C-alpha cells in the first residue's frame, strides 16, 4: 500500500489542539465588515444537504470540458452502470 505525504505545511496548534491564527488575523476576525449584507440570507438553507454529506469528485480538465454540469455526468454514469451490469449478466 502506497503512502502519500501531505503537501500542507504543519501549523501551530493551541492548547485545545486547534489550529492557531496569528494575532493580527484573530483581531480582524472579531469585526463584521460594513460591506457584508446578510439581510436577504436564509438561515439553514443548506443544512439538510450538508447533513446528508457530499461526495466531491474532481474531474480531469479534459473530461470536464465534455460535460456542462453534474446532471450530465450523473446521467452518463447511470447509463454506463446499466450497460456494465447487463453485460455482466
Question: Can you describe this structure?
Answer:
- With 89 residues, the chain is mainly alpha-helical.
- Helix content is 40%, strand content 0%.
- It contains four helices and no strands.
- The protein has helices spanning 23-29, 47-52, 61-64, 70-88.
- The longest helix is centred in the C-terminal third of the chain and has 19 residues, at 70-88.
- The radius of gyration is 22 Å and the shape is elongated.
- The mean pLDDT is 78.
Descriptive labels:
mainly alpha
Summarize it.
This protein has 89 residues and is an all-alpha fold. It is 40% helix and 0% strand. The chain has a domain at 53-89.
- Helices and strands, in order, run as HHHH
Distance between the amino and carboxyl termini: 32 Å
Radius of gyration: 22 Å
Helix share bin: 40-55%
Derived from helix and strand composition plus strand pairing, the structural class reads: mainly alpha
Approximate strand percentage: under 5%
Give the overall silhouette: elongated
Discrete helix count = 4
Mean pLDDT: 78
- Strand tally, please? 0
Unreliable spans are: none
Largest sheet: none
Q: What's the SSE blueprint?
A:
Layout: H1 23-29, H2 47-52, H3 61-64, H4 70-88
